[in-house]
């Protein structure tokens, strides 16, 4: 498991941007939880992880006391002095534990923790990537259809284009390249969802920004858009430069 563990750490750190220290903390905590489930205790357990070899060691920690009430948590002063004459009451002594069956449990627990870290980080990267494109136009490829959505591949995720967000009369086939307006990106327990539109009024603004320099640089401002997708669009514009005719700039250009 050691080489596989170190390789997984490298991938998570280099490809997914997760700090190695955070991964190790998560793995150690998962091992502690696995030990508790297996043996019914964790408060008295310490786990050391060797970052160079990928090996872990499980210790139980016992306090030096006059009278032992729980041998899992305590050790008598007499027995402690037999180990090392420097021990005193209240000292904590670590005893290495090596139950063979726990090795298999620990390996599985560590693997699950690493995979969960990868899933969460991948989801976070996907969410942040597309959240940055919210209220923007993106190009994608029509992937598939169902009775609710057209699914548009935007690169690393399939966006959802609902019927009400489509332009009446438009028909697409699989693998068609289309432009869509990203109006909502959300992260929920099932994953990241990206919702796109072909009929959203804001799509007109973004298209005009792409096509008309005066709109892009703010000389002409689009104040509002009233759109009947597939039929007509009305745009209210305002020029911030007395030498630039807002209507003349827009007409025949959008």
Automatic annotation (TrEMBL):
Gene Ontology BP terms: DNA-templated transcription termination; transcription antitermination
NCBIfam families attached to this UniProt entry: NusA
UniProt KW Amino-acid biosynthesis keyword: no
InterPro entries: KH_dom-like_a/b (IPR015946), KH_sf_prok-type (IPR009019), NA-bd_OB-fold (IPR012340), NusA_N_sf (IPR036555), TF_NusA (IPR010213), TF_NusA_bacterial (IPR030842), TF_NusA_KH_1st (IPR025249), TF_NusA_N (IPR013735)
Cellular component GO terms held in the UniProt record: cytosol
Keywords, in A-Z order: Cytoplasm, RNA-binding, Transcription, Transcription regulation, Transcription termination
Coiled-coil features, chain-numbered ranges: none
Top-level lineage group: Bacteria
Ranges where the Transcription factor NusA first KH domain occurs: 198-253
Residues that span the membrane, as ranges: none
Designated name of the protein: Transcription termination/antitermination protein NusA
Molecular function GO terms recorded: DNA-binding transcription factor activity; RNA binding
Pfam family, any one: KH_NusA_1st
Domain Transcription factor NusA N-terminal intervals: 4-123
């Amino acid at each position: 498991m050691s080489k596989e563990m170190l390789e997984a750490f490298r991938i998570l750190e280099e490809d997914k941007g997760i700090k190695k220290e955070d991964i190790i903390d998560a793995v150690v905590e998962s091992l502690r939880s696995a030990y508790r489930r297996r043996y019914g205790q964790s408060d008295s357990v310490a786990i050391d992880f060797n970052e160079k070899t990928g090996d872990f060691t499980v210790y139980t920690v016992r306090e030096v006391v006059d009278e032992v009430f729980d041998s899992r948590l305590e050790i008598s002063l007499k027995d402690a002095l037999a180990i090392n004459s420097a021990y005193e009451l209240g000292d904590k002594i670590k005893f290495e534990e090596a139950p063979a069956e726990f090795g298999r449990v620990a390996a599985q627990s560590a693997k699950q923790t690493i995979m969960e870290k990868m899933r969460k980080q991948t989801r976070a990267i996907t969410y942040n990537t597309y959240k940055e494109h919210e209220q923007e136009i993106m190009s994608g490829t029509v992937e598939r259809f169902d009775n609710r959505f057209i699914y548009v591949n935007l690169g690393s995720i399939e966006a959802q284009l609902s019927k009400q967000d489509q332009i009446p009369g438009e028909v697409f086939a699989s693998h068609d390249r289309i432009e869509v307006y990203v109006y909502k990106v959300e992260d929920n327990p099932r994953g990241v969802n990206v919702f796109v539109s072909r009929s959203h009024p804001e799509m007109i603004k973004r298209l005009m920004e792409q096509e008309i320099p005066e709109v892009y640089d703010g000389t002409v401002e689009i104040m509002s858009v009233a759109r009947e997708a597939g039929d007509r669009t009305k745009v209210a514009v305002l020029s911030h430069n007395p030498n630039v005719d807002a209507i003349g700039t827009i007409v025949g250009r959008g």
